[in-house]
């Protein structure tokens, strides 16, 4: 089993100079205040293809001989590894075929095709896509570029930590998403070589806790639809898992809501777009605040290729959680001017009506009454209470239709 050394990662850093972006590593004052840790963000979502995968893909392709380059390469990926391979293969003149799961976000499929790769959509998961990629490799005699279980890939990904610790040597904790393990393995090797006392913590989706289960001797039980499809890997690599076992002190599991909240916070606070996997590190700080309070934490925003429709939904759900969008039902008399009076009361209380649905004919609504379902823009949850109080004081029966702890 080929091991990766600190020297391998250093060589990879020298090889990629001028071809891969040295992304910013910046302190976030606001996120530090929110989490209680001193937070440094590594903006790998600013790579040309939108993720850290540019790094490992380039290093692997540079190691191919002329015969392998001429025949071409094949890879499987939920999107980021695909784009990294496609981009650098096109730049180096190497034909590339990419196998992607059928549920891959459209933005990743489109961008991979635009980078010149032949995209094949097969399999429901990354692991099923890998089986298809292996079959095509054998048929066409292509070189398979593994997304994580390859020494060159691991070395390339490890260059992130070299840049982070050069920019912020005071970091004492790295929080790194785990899919197949290439990113955390490479960064753990590099970071621990630079600072043997640094703590490496991995984070996984609760739906795909493969490294966590392997570490704790649990049966592998992964599956489901996760917003963090970039780390939805059912089995860590044979090269990466021993590194995780040796150098990673803890693996934390995240709910879908944890990850959603982190995506929302990064775009509203840092004005930076991340996909689910890219926000997983921040999600861990939000979900386990006591674990990180007082630490100097480095987070890798490892990717920003999120489907715009999904991003829109997450931002709207964030507004609902914060009480800035709400939905309520008001019972009114079924006569002219009743709707106008409710609208006037809402306006006077500072609310903004976004949608109105007027129900009078459905079963359960008395013949002399009607129900108004209002979608309202509000300042916060306290403002929602002000609106409902104003309507009730005017004699209206009001019920908030969004299930929140403060719904009244």
CATH architecture of the largest domain: 3-Layer(aba) Sandwich
Low-confidence regions:
none
How would a crystallographer describe the biggest sheet? 6 strands, mixed
Q: How many separate domains?
A: 3
Structural class assignment: alpha/beta
Report on the structure:
The chain has three domains: 6-52 and 152-317, Rossmann fold (3-Layer(aba) Sandwich); 55-147, Rossmann fold (3-Layer(aba) Sandwich); 322-400, ACT domain (Alpha-Beta Plaits). The protein has 18 helices and 14 strands. The protein has helices at 6-16, 29-35, 53-62, 66-71, 80-92, 106-114, 126-140, 151-157, 159-167, 182-194, 210-215, 240-247, 256-269, 280-287, 289-292, 308-321, 338-348, 381-393, and strands at residues 25-28, 38-42, 73-76, 96-100, 118-121, 143-144, 173-177, 199-205, 250-254, 296-300, 325-333, 352-359, 369-377, 397-400. Strand 7, helix 10 and strand 8 form a beta-alpha-beta unit. Helix 3 (53-62) packs across helix 5 (80-92) and helix 13 crosses helix 14. The chain starts with 5 loop residues before the first helix and ends in an 8-residue tail after the last strand.
List its salient traits:
single chain, 408 residues, alpha/beta, Rossmann fold, Alpha-Beta Plaits, 14 strands
């Amino acid at each position: 089993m080929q091991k990766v050394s600190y020297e391998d990662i250093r060589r990879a850093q020298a090889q990629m100079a001028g071809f891969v972006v040295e992304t910013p590593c910046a302190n976030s004052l606001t996120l530090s205040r929110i989490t209680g840790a001193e937070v440094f963000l590594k903006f790998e979502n600013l790579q040309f293809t939108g993720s850290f995968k540019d790094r490992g893909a380039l290093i692997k392709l540079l190691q191919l001989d002329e015969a392998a380059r001429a025949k071409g390469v094949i890879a499987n990926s939920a999107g980021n590894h695909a784009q990294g391979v496609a981009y650098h293969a096109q730049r180096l003149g190497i034909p590339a075929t990419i196998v992607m799961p059928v549920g891959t976000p459209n933005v990743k499929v489109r961008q991979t095709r635009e980078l010149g790769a032949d995209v094949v959509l097969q399999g429901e998961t990354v692991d099923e896509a890998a089986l298809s990629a292996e079959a095509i490799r054998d048929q066409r005699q292509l070189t398979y570029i593994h997304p994580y279980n390859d020494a060159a890939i691991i070395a390339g990904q490890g260059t992130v930590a070299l840049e982070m610790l050069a920019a912020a040597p005071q970091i004492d904790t790295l929080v790194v998403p785990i899919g197949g393990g290439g990113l955390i393995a490479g960064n753990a090797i590099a970071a621990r070589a630079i600072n043997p006392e640094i703590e490496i913590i991995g984070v996984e989706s609760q739906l795909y806790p493969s490294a966590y289960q392997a570490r704790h001797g649990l049966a592998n039980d992964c599956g489901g639809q996760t917003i963090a499809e970039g780390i939805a890997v059912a089995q860590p690599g044979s090269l990466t898992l021993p590194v995780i076992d040796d150098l990673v002190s803890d693996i934390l599991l995240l709910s879908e809501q944890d990850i959603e909240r982190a995506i929302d916070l990064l775009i509203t606070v840092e004005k930076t777009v991340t996909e689910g996997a890219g926000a997983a590190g921040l999600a861990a700080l939000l979900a386990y605040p006591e674990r990180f309070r007082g630490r100097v934490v480095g987070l890798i925003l490892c990717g920003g290729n999120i489907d715009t429709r999904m991003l829109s939904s997450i931002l709207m759900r964030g507004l609902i959680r914060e009480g800035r969008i709400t939905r309520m039902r008001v019972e009114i008399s079924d006569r002219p001017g009743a709707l106008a009076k409710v609208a006037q009361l809402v306006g006077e209380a500072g609310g903004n009506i976004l949608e109105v649905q007027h129900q009078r004919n459905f079963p359960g609504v008395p013949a002399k009454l009607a129900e108004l379902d209002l979608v309202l823009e509000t300042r916060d949850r306290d403002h929602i209470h002000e609106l409902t109080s104003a309507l009730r004081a005017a004699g209206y029966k009001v019920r908030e239709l969004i299930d929140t702890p403060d719904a009244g």
